[in-house]
């Protein structure tokens, strides 16, 4: 780790002009390349207090041992030089594109005497017409196969062509009329070139005129009773229409545009590009990149543009380039694109209409590509094993944490405060063991107290089930059939909870079996920094649990916090361990947000029956169905309410009292006789008239899989 002040240049030595700078490590390897409108201002940002730098930037400047720069005339030159140096040096702290292969194009070699249609990659050659790019070479071959019956252009290699010319026999395509066989003189060089021109025009989108001409020829042939020729023309038209269906029209016919979308999280980003030519999507491509530097969406777009158009063999810049965010500053990039194209280029964010709708489609593809990449990465056993080993090493654990539980707190400005618990075993989700909690101990917003309460409640259950089934820790692992301790399938221990004063109530499933919540994790992860970690550790200490590790993952800087430590553990950005911790944390956040939104929506839709203790959704629906409305239910007597299936006298009394309290202006009901009373003050809130002063039973807590209320 180098001290940046040891190689910091004096501010007066740095020019205040556009340029490109390079950071080098102690071995003189270039580790980062950047550009700046003002080198002096940009480099000053790197040489400030390390605590103020983003962790990725801090890692870069402490790895570097020197910095150097090159002055250029304009920002456009800086952009070009930056890209060329990134390609030359491949710096470890710059954005890296994983899928950096050359995409296939459909090429027509108009620079040859007998033009050839083929799949072509790499450097673009002069005199060759390119269409695409395509995602897969087979997509090109499918399109060509459909068109060859109408445009039988040569597709064979030079060797096959020369051999056919020498023997006087065409290849198989010549015999089945999918090649005009210029190799044996069936068609002249001029006519074959005209055929290649027609093929190119059709691929360029000029299809309407050609189809109308074929339809007229078909009609004329039918009128002249040349039915075989008419049938052949009909089949040609169908083949062309089928080829056109593969490239659906999405924009106006004259539109040539590239649409770029980005889906990203803190560690990675997926870039998707749709190529629209002549109003049709002619190609699609994409990359997944590690965000090894602190980069904005606009910067990711800029890198994508460099990747797309930077090489001599790169794509041709279209008239329009549509992006989700503009680079900052945008002017140099737009000038650079204009220079690459040779005419004006519109670089903008689509705001409305078909282009905005298509951009949303590209964005969905980018999001799916990122999810697919993460799924493939997570499903790899070797990767998961390495991730768990890296976590164990970074947190100084005795063994890999095969079971990880993560907790997150969610609320909306202090209302509907809830928490989530998600479980990962062997690096994979165990959704059947997810739990969610309502915060019961206090009102309002306090993430630290909420975290303490949730950890306390979860692990009090662990201890209660452990005590109920016996102290199996001294007897080795619990039995494989799940008769004691944790079940063989890893289901959690007994779902036991109680008030925060330590009273424990054992809950059972419908069939009488105790709920399982006793299988402990090796690692507890909390969403948050040092305060949340301290609260979780304090909860475990108060319960006397000392064999479960705790850490926190702060979302803003992706730092791992340990109890009692003043400084966080910073895992490398390429670490599989950090990637797994992030997945666990993000899943807990998603699960908590979903529950919180559900509660909020339910509260907005709440009615007077929702306040009746012990009245579930099924019996509420039965009451409304029986009476037709809450108004009619409110005017019903106790005996009338008891007519509803599943409603006993005690429940009916509770319903009548709750509805009377919900409408204080309405007459009260004497729950003993079912008669109307004049004075509602005789019934105290939370009591029944039949049992003065006795609280209405609230029912046992009910926590099912994925839900606690």
Describe this structure in words.
It contains 20 helices and 27 strands. The strands form 8 sheets. Strands 13, 14, 15, 16, 19, 20 and 21 form a 7-stranded mixed sheet that branches. The protein has a 6-stranded mixed sheet with strand order 4-10-9-8-11-12. Strands 2-1-3 form a 3-stranded antiparallel sheet. The protein starts with 18 loop residues before the first strand and ends with a strand. Helix 8 packs antiparallel against helix 9 and helix 13 (381-395) packs across helix 16. The longest helix has 29 residues, at 576-604. The protein folds into 4 domains: 4-94, GIY-YIG endonuclease; 257-375, Nucleotidyltransferase, domain 5 (2-Layer Sandwich); 382-602, Nucleotidyltransferase, domain 5, CATH 3.30.420.340; 608-707, DNA polymerase, domain 1 (Orthogonal Bundle). The model is unreliable at 471-515 and 664-709 (pLDDT under 50). 39% of the residues lie in helices and 18% in strands. The protein has 709 residues and is of the alpha+beta class. It comes from Streptomyces naganishii JCM 4654. Residues 208-243 form the UVR domain. Residues 475-499 have a biased composition (Low complexity).
